[in-house]
Design a protein that fits this description.
CATH class of the largest domain: Alpha Beta
Strand order of the largest sheet: 10-11-12-9-3-13
Strand content: 25-35%
Number of strands: 19
Radius of gyration: 21 Å
Structural class: alpha+beta
Number of helices: 8
Order of helices and strands: HEEHEEHEEEHEEHEEEHEHHEEEEEE
Helix content: 10-25%
Length: 369
C-alpha cells in the first residue's frame, strides 16, 4: 500500500504498523520501507539457523497465471523445462533477455497444466510484469498482479513446522522441498510453499492482508522471532544464494553465475537466449561466480576488486562476516582459469590487497533440508 506521507515516496507493506510496534530499525529497499533488523542481525541470523524466525517479504512481486497453454507459453521465457513439473511442484529459474542475460530470478509454482503462481523480486516486479505480458499477448493466459492485496511471509528454521502447523489446515509434513498447495491459515485462504531464501527448512505463505496481519501476531505470540533484511542477506549468502542486482543481472548469464542446474538445453522448446547459452555450454564461459573465503578477518564487500598476479581480474558481488561460518566470505566473478577450488586471489580493501581462497559453494549447508 502507498505511504500516505507525500514527502516520503517509499511504499509500506500491510505489516508495516505491526513491524514498527516491534521497534524495528527501518531502511529503504527497492522502493519500500522495510525492517533491516529487530533485536540484532547476528541474533536473528542464529535464531533462524537454530530455531525459527519470520520475515515480511510482502514487497515481492506476486503473479497468478491461468489459461490454456500456460506452461507452453512460459517455456519460451525461461531456460528450465517447466513441463517436468507436476501440480504441486515448483522450479527456481530465470527470465532471460536475447543475450542470455538474467532479467530476474523467479520461482514458478505449477498448480496444474493451466494454473501457476510466480514470485518475483520487488525491484524488478514492474519490469518482469511488462516482459511476461508482452510475450503472452497472443495467448489465452489470464495474468493477474496480486502483489498489493496479499501478504507474503517467510517462516524459516528447523522449528518451523512445530510453530506453524497449529495455524495451518494442511499437513505441513506432507509438503516436500519446493512443494506447495492452497489451504486455510487461521481461517483465511492461503498459498503455502516449502521454499525460502535462508538455506534452512521453512515455508512461505501468501495470504490476504488481514490474514497476514493475524498470522504475524499469532506467530509472535508463539515465540517466533521477527527478522529483518540484514539477517536475510547473511543467511542467503552463507547458502550461496544469488541476490539479483548484485550477484546476477541482465549482463550475466546463468552459466556464468553457477546456475547450470536450472538450464535444460535438452528441452525441445525454443526459449529466449538459448543460442547464447548453447554456445557457452559448448565453448565454456570466460568468467564464473565463485565463493571466496578471506584468509584473515578483513571483509570483502560488494564492488571490491579481485586481483591476481598484480592485475585486477574480477569483482566482489556480495560479502560479509558470516555468523554461522565464522569466516569472512564473499561471492565474486573471476576468470574461469582462476575459478578452481583452492586457487588464491587477492581482494582490494581500502587500497591494500588481502589474500582470499576460492572455496566450494555453498559456504553452509543445513542438516535440516
Amino acid at each position: 500500500m502507498a505511504n500516505s506521507n507525500v514527502s516520503d515516496p517509499l511504499l509500506r507493506t500491510p505489516l508495516y504498523d505491526l513491524i514498527v510496534k516491534q521497534k524495528a530499525k527501518m531502511t529503504a529497499f527497492s522502493g519500500w520501507q522495510m525492517p533491516v533488523q529487530f533485536t540484532g542481525l547476528k541474533l536473528e541470523h542464529q535464531t533462524v539457523r537454530n530455531e525459527v524466525g519470520m520475515f515480511d517479504i510482502s514487497h515481492m512481486g506476486k503473479f497468478t497465471l491461468e489459461g490454456k497453454g500456460l506452461i507452453s507459453a512460459l517455456q519460451s521465457l525461461v531456460p528450465s523445462d517447466l513441463s517436468r513439473l507436476s501440480p504441486g511442484e515448483a522450479q527456481y529459474t530465470v527470465l532471460l533477455n536475447p543475450e542470455g542475460g538474467i532479467i530476474d530470478d523467479i520461482i514458478v509454482y505449477c498448480q496444474g497444466a493451466e494454473k501457476a503462481v510466480i514470485i518475483a523480486n520487488a525491484g524488478t516486479k514492474d519490469k518482469d510484469k511488462k516482459w511476461i505480458l508482452s510475450h503472452l499477448e497472443a495467448t489465452n493466459v489470464d495474468f493477474k498482479d496480486v502483489s498489493s492485496e496479499n501478504v507474503l511471509l517467510a517462516i524459516q528454521g528447523p522449528q518451523t513446522v512445530e510453530k506453524l502447523q497449529p495455524l495451518v489446515e494442511a499437513d505441513l509434513t506432507q509438503l516436500s522441498f519446493f512443494g506447495h498447495r492452497e489451504t486455510q491459515v487461521l481461517g483465511f485462504p492461503a498459498f503455502i510453499a516449502r521454499t525460502g531464501y535462508t538455506g534452512e527448512d521453512g515455508f512461505e505463505v501468501m495470504i490476504p492482508s488481514e490474514g497476514g496481519q493475524k498470522l504475524w501476531r499469532s506467530l509472535l505470540e508463539t515465540g517466533v522471532t521477527p527478522c529483518g533484511l540484514g539477517a536475510r542477506d547473511t543467511l542467503r549468502l552463507e547458502a550461496a544464494m544469488c541476490l539479483y542486482g548484485q550477484d546476477i543481472d541482465d549482463r550475466t548469464t546463468p552459466l556464468e553465475a553457477g546456475l547450470k542446474w536450472l538450464v535444460h538445453l535438452d528441452k525441445k522448446e525454443q526459449f529466449i537466449g538459448r543460442e547464447v547459452l548453447e554456445k557457452q555450454a559448448t565453448e565454456g564461459v570466460k568468467r564464473r561466480l565463485v565463493g571466496l573465503q578471506m584468509e584473515g578477518r578483513h571483509i570483502a564487500r560488494h564492488g571490491y576488486s579481485v586481483a591476481s598476479g598484480g592485475n585486477i581480474v574480477g569483482e566482489v558481488t556480495s560479502g560479509t562476516l558470516a555468523p554461522t561460518v565464522g569466516k569472512a566470505i564473499a561471492l565474486a566473478y573471476v576468470p574461469t582459469g582462476l575459478s578452481k577450488k583452492g586457487t588464491t586471489v587477492e581482494v582490494e580493501i581500502r587500497g591494500k590487497f588481502y589474500p582470499a581462497k576460492v572455496v566450494k559453494k555453498p559456504f553452509y549447508k543445513s542438516i535440516n533440508r
